[in-house]
């Protein structure tokens, strides 16, 4: 939820004043950023700090922002180029209201508390199966050595600190926005995570260690990694110690699973399948999902005992994900008799990003190579395919057919990505205003060549 | 057949109660009003709506109710504005009397309607030949100074009941001064149409849709030229060609020829891609011209043009080879996609293109911040003339014409013997429903 309150500046009033209050983050979900307004894009121009920077909402006590792009007339003092995906604002620890306390130390930091006691995070943390990832971008003012800091403190139910993690670039001027990431285990008993951000003052009058895009996520230590480029699913144990697993399920409401290419433990790594990659030498596992079910891959040791996955162990479950733009896999597993929601991490893909609609060959662009797939499957029967498989064969409207409706869909996607076909060549040729007359004449020639006016081949 | 069932109200009993059930529409004839109870004079007081309005017979959905031109006689109120239409009778349909519905009115098609069977007789022949035209007329008014207005829509339903497009008229004098007036229009009836579904409803501008409709007239006429492209199949040689006998050029980017019985011969098919004609350039696999579909088989022949479209010139005919198996069933269905003219938001002087003159309009007014018109160079309608509008002009500059994917239209299929003139195919009752939005030419004409 991004809120930019330009109240004072633009004489406009936001009706929903409640939006301006710092919120307690809704936690309990894995693999998502739990920090509210970690990008400092929700600001309030009703209260201004140094250089008229606006108040950042959702953090306490008051902290103020500077701007990457001069939004609201607020200056940019950070070095280098504005942070990509940094939005308009970043946190400036030295910016304060007159008489306010600068955010120079952990004690004067802006803070936010995140409850992780409930839901998926809660059960993982309680059993020592949770890890955290904390990252933020940092920058500095000219050649000053001031630097930013972002810390997480893990508090138990009695509000006692049971662990910490800190992300900071350390002293020294940064020439550009720099990302720092720290990861680690979340101590058992953690109920609340307190995030603090401040700048260490080393030179000049204010602590000019700038901070943006604070990201704190909870993940399970037993997780699956999904490769966008290959569709490969890998089960991994990142706990640092051996972990028991006696069953798991991977589900997808968008039918993006491929039972036919799934390498199950039952078929590959159980007691009937000895070898270097064997997972369970003792038990015979059973697949509990149907080979015709594109929404679920599940298997278990019927004895509910399972096997121990060594620390750092990776299990190749095969190219069982049919890659589409929809990333909706869910992973659950039973360890030591308890059911956990596990993390799902997507890796690879063009630019490390989710796939785009129409990119059927997974190369990051919508091109003639994708058209080749669409065209080759026009009017080809797709019965028996999953929705995801059919999509990869050019069924854009999910009716398990590649027909004219899908041609419309792809042509629109293609035109949106590449410019409307008829105009594509023209656009690059459009001249500067001063020379339009000449160019218009040549363009007219071009048109008449492109569209012959003679009758169609009459026989 | 006029029925005024005053039974409930006037204690008069009609002997022939069977007359009260909706009658099967008479169809099949050209140039005659096919609507049963078009003036809503057949009513029933057993079922009444708000204000004691009687229900209207012979129409489906609803029930719909009537207000009265003659409240003194009928004791049912008259809320309409303006002098009564000629031959108005006692009753007219109100789109704002539907006590059974959530909105209390009829503001969507398909709620109060009448189906007209056109699958037999002269109408069927005209439609199969692509020459079926619907001529539509109705008198419409509204409540006092409300801005609500009435609409009459004809959906083209195939034998399976699936819509293949529609034509619609709406009251030609909407607004506060809406009085009884006649609105007319016409549209091309999609090939494969078996039923015309005539829906009456109103646009709700001020609260409910207080639109009033009377004397609905729906006729089918036969045009001289087919209104769609034709596929001509020679039943002796198997030669297939598509023809444009519409009288106008047709811009297309896709076609498909289907046969449920598998009557097509892909090996003998001479596709546009095979031929690489000047008017229909072959693609090289990148989508830069016509390219055959991968799933071509005895059941379907299809080609498409990804990055552009081609004009089928008026009177053109293009052979596709001996692609029809003369030993097999004559069940071919032909469809093609018509690319509509591009929307030229940067055609500031409204002369049909985006050219240098339009650029000058933009240049003269560049910098206007508010209140700018399209004629002044505001392409995106935000009231300002700025770089965004120049960008729109750049995109459309010189292109004009056609852009984007086409709309699927069902064409005419004719089977000819050697040396025998083309005759229209009999309407195929086996045709399975496939919704098609037909491009419809429409004209509204004010009438005094």
UniProtKB/TrEMBL annotation, chain A:
Organism superkingdom: Bacteria
Question: Which keywords are on file for this protein?
Answer: Signal
Q: Which residues form the signal peptide?
A: 1-27
Protein's name according to its UniProt entry: Dockerin domain-containing protein
Automatic annotation (TrEMBL), chain B:
Q: Which UniProt keywords apply?
A: Signal
Highest taxon listed in the record's lineage: Bacteria
Q: Tell me which Gene3D superfamilies the record gives.
A: Dockerin domain, Galactose-binding domain-like
Signal sequence range: 1-27
GO terms (BP aspect): polysaccharide catabolic process
Record-linked InterPro entries: Dockerin_dom_sf (IPR036439), EF_Hand_1_Ca_BS (IPR018247)
Q: Do the record's keywords include Transferase?
A: no
Q: Does the keyword Ion transport apply?
A: no
Q: What residue intervals traverse the membrane?
A: none
Name of this protein: PEP-CTERM protein-sorting domain-containing protein
Source organism (scientific name):
Lacipirellula limnantheis
């Amino acid at each position: 939820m991004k809120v930019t309150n330009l109240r004072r500046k633009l004489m406009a009033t936001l009706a929903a004043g409640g939006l301006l209050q710092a919120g307690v983050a809704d936690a309990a979900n894995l693999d998502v950023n739990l920090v509210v307004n970690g990008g400092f894009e929700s600001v309030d121009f009703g209260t201004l700090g140094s250089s008229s920077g606006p108040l950042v909402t959702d953090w306490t006590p008051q902290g103020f922002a500077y701007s990457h792009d001069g939004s609201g007339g607020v200056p940019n003092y950070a070095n280098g180029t504005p942070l990509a995906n940094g939005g308009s604002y970043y946190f400036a620890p030295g910016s304060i209201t007159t008489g306010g306390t600068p955010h120079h130390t952990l004690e004067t930091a802006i803070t936010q508390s995140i409850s992780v006691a409930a839901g998926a995070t809660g059960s993982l943390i309680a059993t020592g199966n949770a890890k955290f990832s904390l990252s933020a971008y940092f920058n500095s003012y000219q050649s000053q050595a001031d630097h930013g800091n972002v810390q997480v403190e893990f508090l138990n139910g009695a509000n006692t600190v049971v662990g910490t993690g800190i992300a900071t670039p350390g002293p020294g001027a940064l020439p550009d926005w720099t990302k720092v990431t720290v990861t680690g285990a979340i101590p058992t008993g953690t109920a609340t995570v307190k995030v603090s951000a401040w700048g260490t003052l080393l030179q000049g009058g204010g602590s000019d260690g700038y901070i943006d895009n604070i990201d704190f996520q909870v993940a399970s230590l037993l997780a699956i990694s999904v490769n966008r480029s290959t569709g490969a699913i890998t089960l991994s144990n990142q706990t640092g110690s051996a972990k028991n697993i006696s069953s798991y399920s991977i589900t997808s409401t968008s039918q993006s699973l491929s039972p036919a290419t799934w390498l199950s433990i039952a078929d590959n790594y159980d007691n009937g399948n000895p070898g270097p990659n064997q997972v369970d030498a003792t038990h015979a596992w059973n697949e509990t999902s149907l080979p015709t079910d594109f929404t679920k891959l599940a298997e278990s040791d019927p004895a509910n005992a399972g096997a121990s996955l060594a620390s750092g162990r990776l299990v190749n479950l095969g190219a069982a994900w049919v890659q589409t733009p929809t990333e909706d896999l869910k992973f659950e597993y039973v360890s030591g008799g308890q059911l956990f929601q596990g993390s799902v991490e997507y890796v690879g893909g063009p630019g490390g990003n989710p796939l785009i609609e129409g990119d059927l060959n997974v190369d990051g662009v919508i091109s003639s190579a994708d058209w080749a797939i669409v065209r080759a499957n026009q009017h080809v029967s797709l019965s028996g395919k999953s929705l995801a498989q059919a999509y990869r064969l050019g069924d854009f409207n999910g009716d398990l057919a590649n027909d004219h409706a899908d041609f419309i869909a792809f042509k629109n996607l293609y035109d949106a990505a590449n410019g409307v076909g008829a105009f594509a060549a023209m656009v690059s040729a459009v001249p500067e205003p001063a020379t339009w007359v000449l160019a218009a004449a040549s363009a007219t020639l071009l048109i008449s060549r492109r569209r012959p006016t003679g009758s169609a081949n009459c026989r | 057949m006029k029925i005024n069932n005053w039974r409930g109200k006037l204690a008069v009993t009609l002997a022939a109660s069977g007359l009260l059930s909706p009658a099967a529409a008479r169809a099949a004839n050209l140039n005659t009003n096919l609507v049963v109870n078009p003036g809503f004079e057949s009513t029933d007081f057993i079922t009444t709506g708000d204000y004691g309005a009687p229900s209207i017979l012979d129409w489906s959905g609803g029930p719909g109710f009537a207000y009265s031109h003659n409240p003194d006689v009928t004791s049912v109120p008259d809320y309409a504005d303006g002098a009564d239409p000629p031959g108005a009778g006692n009753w007219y349909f109100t789109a704002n009397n539907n006590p059974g519905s959530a909105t209390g009115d009829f503001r969507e098609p398909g709620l109060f309607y009448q189906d007209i069977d056109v699958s037999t007789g002269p109408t069927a022949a005209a439609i199969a030949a692509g020459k079926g035209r619907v001529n539509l007329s109705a008198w419409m008014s509204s409540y006092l100074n409300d801005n609500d207005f009435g609409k009459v829509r004809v959906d083209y339903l195939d034998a399976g009941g699936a819509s293949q497009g529609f034509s619609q008229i709406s009251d030609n004098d909407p607004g506060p001064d809406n009085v009884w007036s006649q609105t007319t229009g016409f549209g091309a009836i999609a090939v494969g149409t078996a039923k015309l579904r005539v829906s009456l409803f109103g646009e709700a501008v001020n609260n409910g849709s207080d639109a009033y409709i009377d004397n609905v007239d729906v006729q089918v006429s036969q045009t001289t030229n087919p209104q769609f492209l034709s596929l001509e199949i020679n039943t002796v040689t198997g030669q297939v060609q598509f023809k444009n006998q519409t009288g106008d050029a047709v811009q297309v980017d896709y076609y498909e020829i289907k046969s449920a019985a598998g009557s097509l011969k892909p090996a003998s098919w001479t596709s546009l891609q095979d031929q690489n004609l000047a008017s229909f350039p072959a693609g090289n696999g990148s989508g830069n011209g016509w390219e055959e579909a991968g799933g071509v088989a005895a059941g379907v022949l299809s080609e498409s043009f990804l990055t552009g479209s081609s004009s089928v010139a008026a009177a053109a005919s293009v052979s596709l080879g001996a692609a029809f198996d003369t030993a097999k069933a004559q069940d071919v269905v032909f469809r093609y996609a018509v690319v509509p003219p591009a929307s030229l938001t940067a055609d500031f002087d409204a002369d049909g293109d985006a050219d240098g003159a339009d650029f000058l309009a933009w240049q003269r007014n560049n910098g206007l911040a508010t209140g700018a018109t399209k004629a002044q160079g505001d392409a995106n309608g935000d009231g300002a003339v700025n770089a965004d509008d120049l960008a729109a002009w750049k995109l459309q500059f010189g292109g004009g014409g056609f852009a984007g994917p086409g709309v699927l239209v069902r064409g005419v299929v004719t089977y000819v013997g050697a040396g025998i003139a083309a005759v229209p195919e009999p309407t195929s009752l086996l045709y399975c429903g496939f919704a098609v939005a037909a491009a419809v030419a429409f004209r509204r004409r004010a009438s005094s």
